[in-house]
Design a protein that fits this description.
Length: 395
């Protein structure tokens, strides 16, 4: 017989409230008796008669009484930090974290780094920090990749980043590609309950492809329910749930898919953003975060390394990128000068030649002359005309 670990079969607001009540006495909130939680019924499937209006109001007030803060002398304990970068708290117990980026931008490498550091992390884990001395369950659900690709991702994470020979028992990973959407969602909830019972709790959950547990990521009702359910699961199991989501193609604002992405962005403690540059170097920072400040100016950078067969941390490429951009522009200016200058030319002659060659206005042509001078492509002759600057770059 299959045993279902359905400790929280609905994960509604009722479950969320019950979870919060258990710790209310430790956080400066009054201890109350067990309230009638029928207030949290689904009104779409169950209606209330007018005679029960007063009862509903009283139930609502009792629920609020259990959530009221009455003293500042006993602050709630800070939830343990599950994932951090330096002194930045990225993900704490009871919270959602979002990892977003364009397709094929390096999200899988970040997932591997997070798995690796959660398992002990002796390899390159992109600066992430995590601790799991009690060996609570680490769950990984992959909805996007084939079994072979899933195997390769896990093998790199465990061996090269985690520094282990094989998977430890408390790391439980699943390829959900062939499972239907509704079964995926239910299976994640049930596996969390089962793994928590077996391993004495959950450290973290990674859902690579969270949009694939929704029938329609643009359905507001469905997506709001999914995010609420995941948030409640994180709170009930006091773990971090990392949700991996694609950004819309060609977006300049980092907008993630549909209502699901919008709601995750609102509810996530941190939104980790990765961006791949034209030089294949990937930057990682936080666009929005409640508990830390991780600006793009302080990003972590990584790039695929053929010798290692995986992405590895690299230095900030900003200066190299600027130098490369300047060099490319200088080459274009040099090519333009070679095309239009046949000998010493006055400013007006050079301006007219550039206007003809590039089909631009006089204003743009004057800007080109200024850029050529600043780049050292042209120089003044003794009589004030322009000629090519003769130096090593000219060769």
């Amino acid at each position: 017989m299959i045993k279902l670990y359905a400790t929280h079969p609905h994960l509604s607001l009722k479950d969320k409230f019950a979870s919060l009540r258990r710790s209310s006495g430790e956080m400066g909130y009054p201890k109350t008796g067990n309230p009638d939680l029928s207030f949290f019924r689904d009104e779409e499937t169950e209606s209330f008669s007018s005679e029960k209006d007063q009862e509903r109001r009283e139930t609502a007030l009792r629920a609020l009484d259990g959530c009221r803060l009455q003293s500042l002398d006993t602050p709630p304990p800070r939830p343990p930090t599950i994932l951090s970068v330096g002194d930045r708290r990225i993900g704490e117990a009871g919270n959602l974290v979002q990892l977003q980026g364009q397709a094929k931008s390096g999200k899988t490498a970040v997932i591997g780094a997070i798995i690796g550091i959660s398992l002990g992390g002796t390899g390159d884990c992109f600066g992430f920090q995590s601790s799991n001395p009690q060996k609570k369950a680490i769950l990984h659900f992959d909805t996007e990749q084939s079994r072979c690709d899933h195997f390769d991702v896990v093998a790199r994470a465990v061996r090269q980043r985690g520094g282990l020979h094989d998977m430890p028992e408390h790391f439980r990973t699943y390829s959900l590609l062939t499972i239907d959407v509704q079964t995926r969602r239910l299976g994640i909830k049930e596996e969390m309950a089962r793994a928590s019972e077996i391993h004495g709790g959950i450290h973290s959950v990674i859902i690579d492809g969270v949009a694939d547990i929704a029938l329609d990521p643009n359905d507001a009702k469905e997506c709001f329910a999914i995010v609420a359910e995941l948030h409640a699961l994180a709170d009930i199991h006091q773990c971090m749930i990392l949700c991996v989501l694609h950004e819309n193609p060609n977006t300049e604002t980092g907008k993630t898919r549909g209502h699901l992405g919008s709601q995750l962005e609102r509810k996530a403690q941190t939104s980790i953003v990765i961006e791949k540059g034209a030089d294949e170097v990937v930057s990682m920072h936080a666009r929005q975060a409640r508990s830390c400040h991780w600006p793009k100016a302080e990003a972590v950078y990584f790039q695929f390394d053929k010798d290692h067969g995986m992405h590895v941390t690299v230095s900030d490429p900003s200066n190299r990128r600027i130098a490369k951009k300047i060099a490319a522009k200088t080459i274009k200016l040099q090519e333009l000068a070679d095309e239009v200058i046949n000998g010493p030319m006055t400013h007006g002659e050079l301006e007219a030649a550039i206007m003809t060659a590039e089909r631009v206005t006089d204003r743009t042509a004057r800007t080109r002359i200024k850029e050529m001078r600043q780049a050292g492509v042209i120089e003044h002759t003794p009589d004030g005309k322009y000629q090519p600057a003769f130096h090593e770059m000219k060769e």
